């Protein structure tokens, strides 16, 4: 069977993404009522699949959505869908995204619908892994999101606004902060679509896993790599001022394993621990290559 240039899936139907339609009554259209996850794939192998599936099921549980698959059934389905996409032009790589919504109901009603089965969406897009060694400019942006940031929900409007603000400022991402949290003024939380970390005096600092940040899989891998390299890791809150004065400022996500920042609000940052930074980046890339080799 000829492979597709991309793939969209909705409750058992699949086709090109642009050909897939969904009902207006899907609660995602009215409320953003659902959760999602995403990761890179290479050679048909889904990177860190177990970690992503565990987080996906945890997010769904926290918002009381019952996924109509076992973990193994969903992993099998996702792997099958990835295999249907042509990756000739991307060295075998794709970006895999999936989400579950609470279902569909008419008329529109905020309360949970009864006797409604959740809807599963999947997209597979040929895409090369982002350049891990690139350098980005950032802006600071007040974190106006709600207090359930540990759940990977579909309610991403504040993140969209933050991303657009970064674009308009000529930056690639933003560093979000809470004006006051944990007794820290301007406490750094995360980016619009990344976790934020820094290196200071040879130590990796990253925000703790609380309700203000997403438990990133790339963040987890970063900590794992640092432990292997003998780099001390401190999971504790830190301020925007601390970040601005760090030796290196880093971002991580499932498609950007460890990107370094050069500026925040047009002020130069980092650049003081390039050897340690590259050692960490090299180790992350090596882990990806090893885990996705046939």
Can you describe what's shown?
About 25% of the residues lie in helices and about 30% in strands. The strands form two sheets. Strands 7, 8, 9, 10, 11, 12, 13, 14 and 15 form a nine-stranded mixed sheet that branches. The chain has helices at about 25-30, 50-60, 70-80, 155-170, 215-230, 240-245, 275-290, and strands spanning about 5-10, 15, 35-40, 45, 95-100, 120-125, 135-140, 175-180, 185-190, 195-200, 205, 235, 250-255, 255-265, 265-270. The chain is built from seven helices and 15 strands. It is of the alpha+beta class and about 290 residues long. The model has no long low-confidence stretch (mean pLDDT about 95).
Secondary-structure element string? EEHEEHHEEEHEEEEHEHEEEH
Low-pLDDT windows of residues: none
List the total number of helices: 7
Major sheet description: 9 strands, mixed
Structural class: alpha+beta
- Shape, please? globular
Taking all Cα atoms into account, the compactness measure Rg is: 20 Å
Oligomeric state of the chains? single chain
End-to-end distance, in Å? 22 Å
**CATH homologous superfamily title of the largest domain:** D-amino Acid Aminotransferase, subunit A, domain 2
Report the sheet-strand fraction. Answer: 25-35%
What distinguishing features does this structure have?
2 domains, globular, D-amino Acid Aminotransferase, Chain A, domain 1, 27% helix, 9-stranded mixed beta sheet, D-amino Acid Aminotransferase, Chain A, domain 2, single chain
Q: Secondary-structure map with pairings?
A:
Layout: E1 7-10, E2 13-15, H1 27-31, E3 34-42, E4 45-46, H2 49-62, H3 71-82, E5 93-101, E6 119-126, E7 135-142, H4 157-168, E8 173-181, E9 184-188, E10 195-200, E11 203-206, H5 217-229, E12 233-235, H6 240-244, E13 248-253, E14 256-264, E15 267-268, H7 274-291
